[in-house]
Amino acid sequence: MTDCLVYLDHAATAPVRPEVVAAYAEALGRTGNASSLHSAGREARRTVEEAREKVGALLGARPSEVVFTSGGTEADNLAIKGVFWARRRLDPQVRRIAVSSVEHHAVLDPAFWMASHAGAEISQLPVDAEARLDLDALRADLDEHGARTALVSVMWANNEVGTIEPLAEVVSLAHRHGVPVHSDAVQAVGVLDVDFAASRLDAMTVTAHKLGGPVGVGALVARRDLGIVPVSHGGGQERGIRSGTLDVAGAHAFALALELAVQEREAVSTRLAALRDDLVGRVLATIPGAHLRGPDPAVAPGERLPGNAHLTFEGCEGDSLLFLLDSAGVCASTGSACQAGVPQPSHVLVAMGVDEVQARGALRFSLGPTSTAADVDRLVAVLPEVVERARRAGLSSGPVTQERLARRREAS
Amino acid sequence: MRVLAAMSGGVDSAVAAALAVEAGHDVVGVHMALSANRDQFRTGSRGCCSIEDAGDARRAADLIGIPYYVWDLAEQFEETVIADFLSEYQAGRTPNPCVRCNEHIKFQALLDKATALGFDAVATGHYARVELREGPGGQVRRELHRSPNTAKDQSYVLAVMGPQRLARAVFPLGGFASKDEVRAQAAHRGLTVSSKPDSYDICFVADGDTKGFLRERLGSRPGEVVDVDGRVVGEHDGAYAYTVGQRKGLALGRPAPDGRPRYVLEVEPVSNRVVVGPAEMLAVREIVSDGAVWYDDERREAAARGIDVEVQVRAHGDPARARLRATSDDAFAVDLLDPLRGVAPGQSIVAYQGTRVLAQATVATTAR
Fold first, then answer.
1. Burial environment of residue A204 by CB neighbours within 10 A (0 to 12, 13 to 18, 19 or more)
2. pLDDT tens digits, residue range A223-279?
């Protein structure tokens, strides 16, 4: 077994920048609870507030709009549950949550949890073949249910296929009905120009570990006039909507990582888009049965995350591809969330209309600031053999067929 | 060799993987996900198939220092092992799902996928030995033998794979005389699964309620329980839920005239009747079997005239002395020296000479 020589899974988590590691460690070495009233507490509080100001400024938000959380999942839960409860409290008729079909599980699962535990109704909005939200469907949904809709949640950019969603239109449509909009922007921050005020969003999820910060810290950026009922209760930190001792070092490291990512954003994005285009072009040219999923950057360059390449390979299973790439020193992902490591057909690909058999052979390559042309060369060198071998393995264990999948759905 | 270690999350397969590494092989750990609906499979600490078990397997792989992956074989498992389990019961026969899992999943779907991905062999935590013997032509012959740990011996459930697949199978626990020794090996290596309880039940029957599982999957089909003279002595919810030799759970209203316990003698799927009778009527002297797999062509040829063997018809049954006659290349009949009780069509029958597995087949019919 080779160690991971080529890391192409930045969308899962990105390497922490060395400057951030140093700043994080230094801040961890300082004692102080930001809620304490003595000098050590004041010092800790000052670090947090400086981080909050920096994060706000870098994201086009006011400091008071930044609510630190433990990361993206907590921020998504707080947005979905907290806004639903707050809006419903004002009007018991308001009970609908509209989400796109390609949201991350951190949005879909709390929404469906609210359906089974809190009387919510869910509108799961369709997307086109490239995972772009169907705006007509949203318009129709809001025309019918707008008065009863608690919030709309549509991601800024999709974590699997990299599609950038038409948020400006989403916001316009929702606001016409007085419905607030939340967006999970964890894949977009540090890569795209993310300006909370300009976006007119009401709430937005960000996380540190996708942009060179540590795992375990993120934020819900939320307008002050957006009512949010807390999910966890305790000391009343963070405007009373997110209790828990503040992660001083985490906030400090997050702010620095965000600062560095935003500073180099344009240069890195341009470079990554070129690398990605090279990767996709060479893979499609050398491997028969490979298909790019999501927007084609050659056709619509501005509609896809620059570092994202998502491909399916006919006749292959994701677990075989992943194993063989890993053996060759390339770390990639099947793109879909997996519990206990079991790759399930991606709900994103299924929502895009990719048939489940094709969806089984998916690989996501996500590049980041540390990616190089040599990484792409290495991948392109090993991939043809990997795909060929995975195809043989797919045939040997019996091909996945539609009938098989139908039987499986019945069984579960 | 490049070896794929199948890791259930239990102690046996973890130690087997560790021993494969120590034997100098290039080892990768793989946990098989066998259920699309994970709640359906048992959770808790009883052996395999739950999310906890996948986590235990992952942790064991970390400690051993090998890469670890989960492979999804749920469709193949449903189509072969579970489908066979249901159709066999429906046909009034008695399946052994562990035998079918070894046949179709571990030593077929997994082994073939592993081979296609570049592995030379699959290692499992089974208790059985592979011995290399030089044959008459000088070529090396691979023999499957019982484990010295007679209580745990699993040669019976492995015999179905046949010699070609055995050539790509590795059983690192083959020489272990006791489970305690395996647990000690696990503890010695710091494997957290060392004290995990053994698994006993059928992994896809969550609560051990086979009857309930069959009813849920096959539906209720009430019918009569009759004695050997055809008198109705009770009712049932579905003949498929009964197996030959069964005594418990018959819930017969009328006691037998002689007051002695009654056993299931026959399950008749077409008439949907269950026939019960006294224990002595369970005794079987002849077994005809089909789908035979032989490990030794010479013995198979000799068996055309009849050879002396011991046969086993249950995973933990005592071997019985018998005369075996090969009736064709893939079928044999056995005459038992002493009658055996409760032999049912569908069961796997394995023929041994000493500790060595000679052949395996499936019971087709029996006679008194």
1. buried
2. 999 999 999 999 999 999 999 999 999 999 999 999 999 999 999 999 999 999 999
Residue B126 burial (10 A CB sphere; 0-12, 13-18, 19+)? buried
For testing contact with chain A, the best of B106, B117, B168 (most A CBs within 10 A): B117
CB pairs under 8 A between A and B: 82
* Residue A407: C-alpha distances to residues A315, B38, B97, B104 (Å): 19, 16, 19, 18
Contacts B69 to A, Cβ<8 Å: 319, 322-323, 341
Closest residue on chain A to B53 (Cα)? A340
Confidence of residue A289 (pLDDT cuts 50, 70, 90): very high
CA of B26 to nearest chain A CA: how many angstroms apart?
Answer: 8
- Which of A237, A262, A287 lies at the terminal end of a domain, its last residue? A262
Mark whether A4 is an active-site residue: no
Each residue's pLDDT tens digit, A292-327 = 999 999 998 889 999 999 999 999 998 899 999 999
Residue A298 burial (C-beta neighbours within 10 Å; 0-12, 13-18, 19+): exposed
Give the CATH number, domain containing residue A241.
3.40.640.10
| Best CA proximity match to A127, nearest among A306, A280, A295 | A295
User: Which helix (DSSP H) or strand (DSSP E) does residue B214 occupy?
Assistant: helix B210-218
Token digits of residue B89: 């019961």
**Global confidence as pTM:** 0.88
Q: Which CATH number does the domain housing residue A334 bear? A: 3.90.1150.10
A258 & A272 share domain? no
A313 in the same domain as A253:
no
B203 belongs to the catalytic site: yes
Considering only CB atoms, which chain A residues are within 8 Å of B165? Answer: none
Residue A209 DSSP code: T
Q: What are phi and psi of A333, to 5 degrees?
A: -140, 155
A343·B72 Cβ contact <8 A? yes
The parent domain of residue A52 ranges over: 31-262
Contact B69 A323 (CB under 8 A): yes
ipTM of the shown complex: 0.83
Query: What domains can be seen in chain B, in order of their start residue?
Result: 2-195 (3.40.50.620), 220-277 (2.30.30.280), 283-367 (2.40.30.10)
- The answer to whether the CB of B291 falls within 8 A of the CB of B362 is yes
| Residues of chain A contacting B, Cβ within 8 Å | 1, 317, 319-320, 322-324, 326-327, 338-343, 389-390, 392-393, 395-398, 400, 404-405, 407-409, 411-412
The C-alpha of B39 sits at a distance from chain A's nearest C-alpha, in angstroms, of 9
Q: Which amino acid is at B162?
A: G
Q: How far is B27 from chain A (nearest CA, A)?
A: 9
Non-local (6+) Cβ contacts of A272 within 8 A are: A306, A307, A367, A368, A369, A371
Low-confidence ranges of chain B (pLDDT < 70): 36-49, 200, 254
Burial (CB count within 10 angstroms: exposed 0-12, middle 13-18, buried 19+), residue B190: exposed
Residues from chain A that touch B55, judged by Cβ atoms under 8 A, are 340
Contact (Cβ atoms closer than 8 angstroms) between residue A368 and residue A15: yes
Residue B283 to chain A, least CA–CA distance (Å): 39
Residue A278 counted as domain residue:
yes
